[in-house]
Amino acid sequence: SKKLSEVFSTLKYIILITFVIELFSGILIYASLEAEQFQSQYDQIFFSVFHAISAFCNAGFSTLSNSLYDVGFKYNYVLQLTIIGTFVLGGLGFPIVVNIINYVKYLFRKLISFGKNNVGYRPWVLNLNSRITLITTFSITAIAFAAFFALEYDNTLAEHDGFGKVVTALFGATTPRTAGFN
């Protein structure tokens, strides 16, 4: 940035995006939890906030002794999907996330003005850096998911049902590359 005001506006935007993603994932985590697993509602809220921040920052820390493999949590597939989405967004980095947000805004405006010619065609809404990063991320994830699913189907995935096998394989394929949860 050439101006100090641009640095502060970018910093505010980073903080806002981080807070919104962590808040949204914290709410999803909280909604996926069973209250019986916690001594109080405060503990449940703390668990949700802690894991949302840990996932977005790609820390991989958990308050559970066996991370997300604890008995009450290893079958919570909504929790696992939320954690996956959160740490993948955190791992992509701010410029890519901003570019994805701009792309979603563009698609939304295009959808709203369907049939009207209000939204001009913009071929490079996703810049080259974002495209390369997203293609690489999804390719590595798809290959790792297929390998994990095939190799662990009758081993670590044996205790899960059909959807559970898919989610657990996806979790096992994505977490070593970015976050380190188990």
Can you summarize this structure?
This protein has 182 residues and is mainly α. It has helices at 4-32, 41-56, 77-92, 94-112, 128-152, 162-178.
Which descriptors apply to this entry?
182 residues; mainly alpha; globular
Question: Which radius of gyration do the C-alpha atoms yield?
Answer: 19 Å
Beta strand count: 0
Amino- and carboxy-terminal Cα gap: 39 Å
| Beta-strand percentage range | under 5%
Which ranges are low-confidence, i.e. pLDDT below 50, for 5 or more consecutive residues? none
The helix/strand series, from N terminus to C terminus, equals HHHHHH
The computed structural class is mainly alpha
User: What helical percentage do the residues reach?
Assistant: 55-70%
Tell me, briefly, the overall form: globular
- Number of helical segments with 4 or more residues: 6
Would you give an account of this structure?
The chain is mainly alpha-helical and 182 residues long. The protein contains six helices and no strands. α1 packs across α2 (41-56) and α5 crosses α6 (162-178). The chain starts with a helix and ends with a helix. The model has no long low-confidence stretch (mean pLDDT 88).
Please outline the helices and strands:
Blueprint: H1 4-32, H2 41-56, H3 77-92, H4 94-112, H5 128-152, H6 162-178
